[in-house]
Design goal:
It is built from three helices and eight strands, in the order βαββββαββαβ. The chain has 152 residues and is of the alpha+beta class. It has a single domain, classed as Electron Transport, Fmn-binding Protein, Chain A (Pnp Oxidase, Chain A), CATH 2.30.110.10. Strands 1, 2, 3, 4, 5, 6, 7 and 8 form an eight-stranded antiparallel β-sheet that branches. The N and C termini lie far apart (39 Å).
Length: 152
Amino acid sequence: MRKVWGEMAAGSQYSQEFLAFWGERHLCTLTTLRSDGTPHVVPVGVTFDAEAGIARIITRKTSKKVANIAVPGARVAVCQVDGGRWATLEGTAEVRTEAALIGDAVSRYAERYGRTPGPDPERVVIEISIDRSMGQTLQRQAPRTATAVSTT
């Protein structure tokens, strides 16, 4: 089983398995830091643009995650898990309010998750500039089945 990790820049430095995994429909987690330094972990939908080196999350501007990211240079991580496969993207987050960026993020979300969110005037986009990634994204083989052993 191959693991992938390390410092990453935008572009094609990701394995095909890693990119395919981020294209599958999975619920993810976003980890931000509260003002007291404790982690705030919430479920989110994430889209990943490997060429641009950006992960995107659509959310409401009044959310706790947005408040946690309000600090310039805020570090965050997004992670997704499927059985033994997992992948994490880390980077610096920024809240974007431009209508064109929100529309693009909604379209990307709809493509990955198979549904288009309804209009929301409170919607913003969290853009994460990825500088580190790690994961284990190769499909594991089916587990071996146990063989019955007679004790008589």
